[in-house]
Specification:
The complex is a heterodimer. Chain A contains one helix and 24 strands. Chain A is mainly beta. Chain B is an alpha+beta fold. In chain B, α3 packs antiparallel against α4. The chains are: A mainly beta, B alpha+beta.
């Protein structure tokens, strides 16, 4: 279990001044990011290698050259570049590796890691402008819900743990604490859990990333679940500071159909 | 000519008449402008609340009705007897109605299409052997653009009476690949290869799960259906990627895609041409 997550700590907090005509490199998991400043133009190239060995480093290994299509952004002068972690652009459907069932009326707390993306921003004073989002993982996709009213999500096979110290994390994984209440009279079979990550806030403490604590209340099969976004870090990371705001600001409680049951509509 | 001779310009352009003419011009110009502004405001207010075709129907109704009222008011100001005009309009309306039964039928069909909403602007539909993107749904006809950039106008009445397939109605679709493998091939291996193709392609959805159905013991091989689900906008990418991947993986795994062989005879008096398949290494 790797807990060495602090390598990105400075990067999240501080912008990097781009030297003129010098190639900057970041290895972020299995993605390589190259940035080169030429006057007021930033040339950016990302190269994702899904089969590559994940690594986190800021120095370009010898012999590795950028391959792919560069994109040029007219940013302006006197700006710094900043990388910030951000949740993926679609909801995540967690598929527990082991069958997990929750008895009626019971509550359980799970911890797991959410793989994050990187948002590239330009920073001028206190104003940051988003340039582009870089996915660090290639997720498979899943349709959550019925074929006409569901939503497209990323699929993630995951181990649910009741202790956060057992969750394996990388520098760009956010720990997530979810409390699930089975408010129905039936057994809750957690085959799939849909996380609407677009409402998640990311906090940081000592190099560890956390999302806000979530409370899901299951009301019965086929019913909508009530989701409470606490919008503050869990007590395990007390004092953590806000790093990234949600993609979509959440309302007080969001009713979403969050627990999936396997439905065979493939035929 | 006598009429023109008798026309007294000086009498026509008296100050009172000039004022009336000015009023009529103001009524027509101002009225038309006001109608356009009202239609624009209504359009802006309800734009996000209704579908594009309902929006179009409402704005056109407001515009035409508004223009009609402005015109009637202007005619009234000119001193024209409206009762007579409306009476004549009734008679003309009946005559036009009889003469344009098909147009009326199309209009009524158009109202049904708009209320029933079998498709919307931007949807891809198939009518008969034509497939295209809906450009507009008007009172008389539906306009669509085919993928080879042809413009097609389909009368609404035809759409009401014909089977229409709305391809983009649902957000996800299933793509079917009808395949055939040789009798000698291991079907378990075929299944594993096909499912791994779907699993490794990020555009193929994990759920609904890919489908594999062994259909028939065919003439040349075992026929099967392999189907993957995808998000509707990814049609081309999924079709090409999965197609190429099936061919590549089958070749790599030694799974044969059988096809009928044809033996040529040069005439009734000759035997068949000898045909032999050779591998690359033995080819000269």
């Amino acid at each position: 279990m790797s807990r060495k997550t602090g390598i990105m700590h400075q990067t999240w907090r501080q912008g990097v001044s781009l030297p003129e005509n010098k190639l900057l490199f970041w290895r972020l998991g299995t993605s390589d990011l190259y940035v080169k400043k030429e006057g007021e133009v930033w040339n950016i190239l990302t190269d994702i290698d899904p089969g590559g060995k994940p690594a986190w480093q800021f120095e370009k290994p010898a012999g590795r050259d950028p391959a792919g299509k560069w994109e040029s952004y007219f940013v302006g002068s006197m700006e710094t570049i900043k990388l910030v972690p951000i949740v993926p652009d679609r909801p995540l459907v967690l598929k527990p590796v082991n069958a997990v069932k929750l008895l009626p009326g019971r509550t359980v707390t799970f911890y797991f890691g959410i793989p994050l993306w990187i948002r590239l921003t330009s920073q001028r004073g206190s104003v940051s402008t988003s340039i582009r989002d870089i996915p660090l993982n290639t997720f498979s996709q899943i349709w959550f819900g019925d074929p006409f009213g569901g939503e497209l999500c990323y699929s993630l096979d995951i181990s649910l743990s009741t202790q956060f110290l057992h969750v394996a994390v990388t520098p760009c994984t956010s720990l997530c604490k979810v409390r699930i209440k089975n408010g129905s009279t039936a057994l809750l079979d957690l085959q799939k859990i849909c996380l609407h990550t677009e409402y998640y806030t990311i906090f940081e403490k000592d190099g560890m990333l956390w999302t806000d604590e979530l409370i899901y209340q299951f009301r019965g099969e086929g019913q909508s679940s009530q989701i409470n976004y606490t919008r503050k870090p869990p007590k395990e990371s007390e004092g953590a500071k806000l790093l990234t705001s949600p993609r979509v600001p959440p309302t007080q409680n969001i009713i979403k159909r969050s627990f999936g049951i396997l439905k065979d509509f493939a035929g | 000519m006598d009429l023109l001779k008798n026309l007294n310009i000086a009498e026509l352009f008296t100050p009172e008449n000039l004022i009336t003419i000015a009023e009529i011009v103001v009524i027509i110009v101002g009225g038309f402008l006001a109608v356009k502004i009202v239609a624009g405001i209504v359009k802006r207010i309800i734009r996000k609340k209704v579908t594009p075709q309902v929006l179009m129907l409402i704005t056109k109704s407001i515009t035409y009705l508004g223009f009609f009222v402005v015109l009637l008011y202007a005619l009234n100001k000119m001193g024209v007897q409206l009762a007579a005009i409306l009476g004549a309009a009734g008679v003309v309306g009946i005559a036009l109605g009889i003469a344009s039964q098909e147009s009326l039928s199309n209009m009524i069909s158009g109202v049904f299409l708009i209320s029933e909403k079998p498709f919307e602007i931007g949807d891809i539909i198939t009518v008969g052997d034509k497939t295209g993107i809906i450009m507009s749904i008007d009172l008389l006809s539906v306009k669509m653009r085919t993928f080879d950039n042809l413009f097609i106008r389909i009368p609404n009445e035809k759409l009401i009476n014909t089977e229409v397939t709305t391809i983009t109605r649902f957000p996800i679709r299933r793509m079917d690949f009808n395949l055939s493998v040789a009798y000698k091939d291991d079907l378990q291996k075929v299944q594993e290869v096909l499912f791994s193709i779907a699993k490794q392609n990020p555009l193929c959805l994990d759920e609904p799960e890919p489908l594999l159905l062994f259909k028939n013991f065919g003439e040349s091989g075992i026929e099967l259906l392999f189907a993957v689900w995808f998000e509707k906008s990814q049609y081309l990418a999924v079709k090409n990627n999965v197609f190429m991947e099936i061919k590549t993986r089958f070749e790599r795994e030694g799974i044969e895609i059988p096809f009928p062989h044809v033996t040529l005879y040069s005439g009734s008096g000759t035997g068949p041409f000898p045909v032999k398949t050779v591998s690359k290494s033995t080819r000269k």
